[in-house]
């Protein structure tokens, strides 16, 4: 039994290398990394990691699978424009990269493929990754969906050996859910997405279904499962500069994704308005006021069992 990861990265450097080495150490046999841009002067070469640099010429000459021509058309139209960093353009690239990752995985005889980003870690405490996917296979599972827990952003910054995570909404009791407004002091409980990421047991029909799911032909309900352990550790921000850089890159996106209404997370909407005004100082204030978790709030979350401690020692944070 083997499993691989497909991922889209903004850049490829030592931070990305740390991310890849963490997952190889967990037991993943192969990682396919698609990087937005050209090959850097200083490359990071890691056995078991295929790095594909996707600059403008890559996308102009790309041949998509049937059914994904519109995704490619939108990516090509965004080249060199402010729309390149938008959520919709990023999602289009993620979908196309996952298609390519699936092709590579099939050719190499990979059984399972997980799609995550460079600010996410697959967290599988108490069991080896390959044992987990072996169990999924024996149970007849084809699609496994992992809820994401979100890293607590502390004023003192991150430490290598202690990552505190806020439990996903799906892992909370009704009583815990009712406490969130009072415990979070008006801040959003999660600052980013909460709908998890997925892995699929690969067959000829496996395709990406957006950036968070897969689809395959004739999958009965009993062949899909959802879980919060194993899970995705999502670390959306590592510093105020990273927060500002991320949202300046996302730009002033609209509230439609693939032609349908989309309601971004509250912090994303507030950050977008700062970007629209050119207010970098406002972005920094937003990070301090709405993202950072103070000691009193942290104590309250811990008291009511909202937190998980994950050991991701010596693993670098996303670039």
For this entry, give a set of tags.
two-stranded antiparallel ribbon; 319 residues; alpha/beta; ten-stranded mixed sheet
Tell me what you see in this structure.
The chain is α/β, with parallel strands linked by helices. The chain is built from ten helices and 14 strands. Strands 1, 2, 3, 4, 5, 6, 7, 8, 11 and 14 form a ten-stranded mixed sheet that branches. It has a two-stranded antiparallel sheet with strand order 9-10. A hairpin with a 3-residue loop joins strand 9 and strand 10. Helix 7 packs across helix 9. The longest helix is centred in the first third of the chain and has 21 residues. It is globular and about 50 Å long. The C terminus is likely disordered.
Strand content: 15-25%
**How many β-strands, per DSSP?**
14
Count every helix, treating DSSP H or I runs of 4 or more residues as helices: 10
Share of residues in helices: 25-40%
What is the terminal separation in angstroms? 31 Å
Tell me, rounded to a whole number, the average pLDDT: 91
Q: State the major sheet.
A: 10 strands, mixed
From N to C, what is the helix and strand string? Answer: EHEEHHHEEHEEHEEEEHEEHHHE
Structural class: alpha/beta
Rg estimate, integer Å? 19 Å
Stretches where pLDDT falls below 50 for ≥5 residues?
314-319
Question: What is the global morphology?
Answer: globular
């Amino acid at each position: 039994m083997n499993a691989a990861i497909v991922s889209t990265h903004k850049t490829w450097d030592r931070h990305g290398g740390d991310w890849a080495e963490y997952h190889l150490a967990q037991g993943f046999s192969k990682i396919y990394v698609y990087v937005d841009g050209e090959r850097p002067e200083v490359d990071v070469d890691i056995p078991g990691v295929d790095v594909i640099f996707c600059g403008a010429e890559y996308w102009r000459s790309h041949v998509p699978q049937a059914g994904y021509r519109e995704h490619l058309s939108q990516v090509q139209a965004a080249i060199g424009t402010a729309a390149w960093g938008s959520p919709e353009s990023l999602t289009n690239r993620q979908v196309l990269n996952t298609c390519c990752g699936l092709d590579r995985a099939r050719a190499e005889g990979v059984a399972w493929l997980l799609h995550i980003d460079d600010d996410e870690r697959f967290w599988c405490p108490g069991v080896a990754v390959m044992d987990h996917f072996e169990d999924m296979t024996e149970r007849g599972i084809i699609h496994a969906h992992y809820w994401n827990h979100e890293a607590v952003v502390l004023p003192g910054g991150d430490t290598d050996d202690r990552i505190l995570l806020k439990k996903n909404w799906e892992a909370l009791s009704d009583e815990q859910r009712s406490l969130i407004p009072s415990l979070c002091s008006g801040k959003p409980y999660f600052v980013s997405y909460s709908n998890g990421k997925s892995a699929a047991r690969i067959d000829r029909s496996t395709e990406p279904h957006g950036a968070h799911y897969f689809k395959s032909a004739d999958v009965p309900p009993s062949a899909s499962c959802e879980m919060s352990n194993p899970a995705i550790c999502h670390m959306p921000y590592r510093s105020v500069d990273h927060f500002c850089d991320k949202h300046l890159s996302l730009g002033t996106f609209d509230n439609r994704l693939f032609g349908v209404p989309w309601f971004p997370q509250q912090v994303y909407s507030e950050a977008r308005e700062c970007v629209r005004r050119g207010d970098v100082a406002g972005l920094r204030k937003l990070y301090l006021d709405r993202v950072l978790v103070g000691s009193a709030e942290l104590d309250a979350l811990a008291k009511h069992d909202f937190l998980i401690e994950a050991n991701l020692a010596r693993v670098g944070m996303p670039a």
